[in-house]
Design brief:
30% of the residues lie in helices and 17% in strands. The chain is built from 18 helices and 20 strands. A hairpin with a 5-residue loop joins β14 and β15. The protein is globular and about 65 Å long.
Length: 569
């Protein structure tokens, strides 16, 4: 039996529902059904969970607001687009939140301000359409403009896929731009009543993620995507991509039928066929994906149950042609190597600027929003959002490097060289107080975690060791903890599951080591673990590789007796 969400989508008039009337009704909230439709427009209705309990006890209306997410294919923005994004931050809480999918989020946006925000973004050529919802989400790209990289090819493919899979319903322009589709960041639907040729009336069973990786650079965690594309030529030198399928990281506590999964290599395809192959895979998921249980409505469960060979046959049948077997991929480097100064092909430089937890705001001590805006006004010609919530400020002349550094110092913004490796190699989702799925903290306690890791590593003479660390407030995995060397996943408001053993290059899953560790007791687990690492690692061995080599059964010996995973017991 299909879930209620399927009925809401099918009867929505292609994402319209009663949103027009509800935007004008003067109420502070949207009904639940409309909340599902808002996601397709890039909006989540949330409430401030720091005050939920007290308001509920007082039988008062919860502190509702919305999160609004911009879709930024490949994370690439022109300065004019960024200036509009930055200007509108004050419609929310004054901050911008860079996402792990190379987008931008606004938090604490009130219902009455939504039309101003979304409409202004579109007039600035930034869209929120399909940033959320049961569609193909923001297309990710290995975004750094490193010397020797065909960035034009990466960027154009990301834009082409984003345009191809954005919904065709005119509802978006009707709601947010009064039907004025001439000012828009996305492709314009030609009619006011479309049949959604790719998605159909009910759209996809759930979200669908696509990422494009440059060989050797797995910053996008390409194996975690529903469809991952690695741009490698074949033996004849023809440009194309290895297509990976069936990745995904979401899971549910206490439900072993849900699990993270890495994508499998399916085929190699030439550039001219990439978009057709991805559309065929989207079509398979649309037609065969689980619409009865949203916790199992991902392509990874189809691939796990029926096999990558079955998916390949379906794609080739739908397209009426066959494709070559996948070819071997080059080794992957560390997940993030783009912070600090780097050369571009044109003789200029880009600066990888760390943004802890992706939170851009101005405080009394640190003015990151102002710094980024002024660098773009004076020195840089484009900005790129990374898959690790940092920024790449690009096109800076050699002669301007010192001025950029002086500006950052003046505004109290640390560069990568001023921060510890634990800070530079960590990432967290927003979690509380805004995310409705969060079971515990993530972004707000990450500084405590990185301080702890710094202390433990220095004490063991490991200060030069980088451990890719990801923290989430729930098991959905938005910060991709299951491919990290150290993953810390919220289980309750104060306790976390610890995963270890992901590869530094993101091509191996981490494994559950210890369950339900109170945040206050993390040191009791991490201290002995890092002590053993310092004593038994081989020369230059990464933490994730070391943990994988020993295995969780051996690693669990001597650790405190919290509730352990069945694997480690």
């Amino acid at each position: 039996m299909a879930t209620p969400v399927e009925g809401i989508k099918a009867s929505s008039g292609h994402l319209r529902g009663s949103l027009v009337e509800e935007l004008a009704d003067g109420m502070s909230t949207f009904p639940l059904e409309s909340g599902h439709l808002l996601k397709f427009h890039g909006i989540y209705q949330q409430d401030d969970r720091d005050h939920r309990g007290e308001l509920a006890r007082a039988k008062r209306t919860l502190a509702y607001s919305c999160m609004v997410r911009c879709s930024v294919p490949g994370g690439l923005l022109r300065p004019s687009q960024w200036f509009e994004i930055d200007r509108l931050a004050d419609v929310g809480d004054g901050s911008l939140r860079l996402t792990s999918r190379q987008g931008v989020q606004y938090h604490f946006v009130h219902k009455g301000d939504l039309k101003e925000l979304v409409g202004s973004l579109n007039r600035g050529l930034v869209t929120t359409y399909a940033a959320c919802g049961d569609v193909v989400r923001n297309v990710m790209v290995s975004s750094a403009p490193d010397a020797g990289r065909d960035l034009g090819r990466l960027d154009s493919l990301a834009r082409a896929l984003a345009n191809r899979f954005r919904p065709q319903s005119a509802a978006y322009w009707e709601l947010w731009l009064d039907g004025e589709r001439a000012v828009s960041a996305g492709p314009i639907a030609e009619s006011d009543d479309t049949t959604e040729p790719i998605y159909g009336d009910s759209y996809l069973p759930r979200k669908f993620k696509v990422g494009i990786a440059w060989p050797g650079d797995n910053s996008i965690d390409v194996y975690s995507q529903d469809v991952g594309l690695v741009l490698v030529p074949n033996a004849d030198g023809e440009l194309g991509a290895v297509v990976l399928a069936g990745g995904g990281l979401g899971r549910t506590h206490k439900d072993a039928t849900t699990f993270p999964r890495l994508g499998d290599p399916m085929v190699w395809v030439p550039d001219r066929d990439i978009a057709d192959v991805v559309e065929a895979m989207v079509g398979v998921f649309r037609d065969e994906g689980n619409r009865d249980d949203r916790s199992h409505a991902r392509l990874k469960y189809l691939v796990e149950a029926r096999g990558i060979g079955w998916l390949r046959q379906e794609v080739e049948r739908r397209l009426g042609r066959s494709f070559d077997d996948p070819i071997a991929l080059p080794a992957w480097g560390r997940a993030r190597e783009h912070l600090g100064w780097h050369h571009q092909d044109d003789g200029r430089w880009y600066l990888g600027l760390p943004v802890p937890s992706g939170r851009l705001l101005d405080t009394k001590e640190t003015k990151r929003r102002t710094a980024v805006r002024q660098i773009l006004e004076r020195y840089a010609n484009e900005i790129r959002l990374t898959p690790h919530q940092d920024l790449l400020l690009c096109g800076i002349e050699e002669a301007d490097k010192a001025a950029v550094e002086a500006l950052l110092t003046e505004l109290g913004v640390p560069q990568a060289k001023h921060l510890s490796l634990s800070v530079l190699s960590s990432m967290a989702c927003p979690a509380l107080p805004t995310c409705g799925q969060a079971l515990g903290e993530a972004e707000r306690v990450l500084p405590e975690l990185t301080d702890l890791l710094d202390q433990l590593l220095v004490e063991r003479r490991l200060a030069d060791v980088s451990i890719e660390t990801r923290m989430t407030g729930c098991p959905n995995g938005c910060s991709r903890p299951y491919v990290a060397e150290l993953g810390i996943v919220g289980r309750t408001k104060t306790a976390y599951d610890l995963f270890v053993g992901g590869s530094p290059g993101g091509s191996r899953l981490a494994v559950l080591l210890v369950e339900s560790v109170p945040f206050s007791k993390l040191e009791d687990v991490l201290a002995p673990l890092l002590e053993r690492f310092s004593q038994s690692r081989t020369d230059g061995e990464a933490f994730g590789d070391w943990a994988d080599r020993l295995g969780v059964a051996a690693l669990a010996v001597g650790l405190p007796t919290f509730q352990r995973s069945s694997v480690a017991s």
